[in-house]
Amino acid sequence: MGRPTERFFAELGKRGHVPGLEPFSGSVLFELKHGEHTERYFLTITKGVISVAREGVNPDCTLRTDASSFDAIAAGKLNAMQAVLRDLVDIEGQGILLAALQRLLPEGPAASTEPAGYARRQP
Predict the structure, then answer these.
(1) Homologous superfamily assigned to 4-101
(2) Distance CA 8, CA 15 (A)
(3) Residue 61 near residue 94, CB atoms below 8 Å
(4) Which 3 state secondary structure label does DSSP give 31?
(5) Would you list the domain boundaries of the chain?
(6) 98 and 62 in contact (C-beta within 8 Å)?
(7) In angstroms, rounded to a whole number, what is the distance separating the alpha carbons of residues 121 and 107?
(8) Backbone torsion region of residue 95, taken as left when φ is above 0, otherwise alpha when ψ lies between -120 and 50, otherwise beta
(9) Quick check: 122 and 91 in contact, CB under 8 A?
């Protein structure tokens, strides 16, 4: 497995039951653009049990982004919530499922608590 996205979904598919996700059931379609090609992963949660497939129908939620952005999220180089806020990720449907999935994603780099453009005064 080469790309962080491929490794992420392969590992996720092996996890089975994930403690803390028991209240959640539903499906999420991940559509990742590679130029003209779209890579798809279909993730299903059933009372905390996770499965991953390359095909599925009628997702409860769809996440769309470019493949390089999701590679950065899967590698922990980009925080998923920050990606959503920066319009790098488009979400359609039941966003509550993505809130649950946030627990499965790497946190990404720590966000600065200082406003953009803020320069610290040197003593």
Answers:
(1) SCP2 sterol-binding domain (3.30.1050.10)
(2) 11
(3) yes
(4) strand
(5) 4-101
(6) no
(7) 29
(8) alpha
(9) no
Phi, then psi, of 70 in degrees rounded to 5: -70, -35
Q: Which ranges of the chain would DSSP assign to H, the alpha helix? A: 4-15, 67-74, 80-85, 95-101
What is the residue-level pLDDT of the chain in tens, covering all 123 positions? 579 999 999 999 999 999 889 999 999 999 999 999 999 999 999 999 999 999 998 999 999 999 999 999 999 999 888 898 999 999 999 878 877 888 888 876 655 444 444 444 444
The alpha carbon dihedral of 1, 18, 43, 80 has a sign of negative
Which residues touch 39 (CB under 8 Å, ≥6 apart)?
5, 31, 32, 33, 67
Contacts of 99 (CB under 8 A, 6+ apart): none
pTM for the model stands at: 0.82
Which two three-digit tokens encode residue 91? 């979400």
